[in-house]
Design a protein that fits this description.
mainly alpha, single chain, 59 residues, 88% helix
Length: 59
């Protein structure tokens, strides 16, 4: 029975999350999109710089 109780608790927590969630408006969506793209560019630039340093030091 403990397994069944865990499943019910898990499903009820997901139900709470879905009830509290909402669709973002256009302004919020655009802001989140820009922030994600900025994060991708920053992480990519850091990776590129690390790779460039590695290639210059090893090669």
């Amino acid at each position: 029975m403990a397994g069944l109780d865990k499943i019910k608790e898990y499903l009820s927590s997901w139900k709470r999350i879905l009830l509290l969630s909402r669709k973002p408006d256009e302004e919020e969506f655009n802001l989140l999109t820009r922030l994600n793209l900025l994060g991708f560019v920053i992480v990519g630039a850091i990776g590129y710089i690390i790779h460039l340093i590695y290639v210059l030091l090893v090669a």
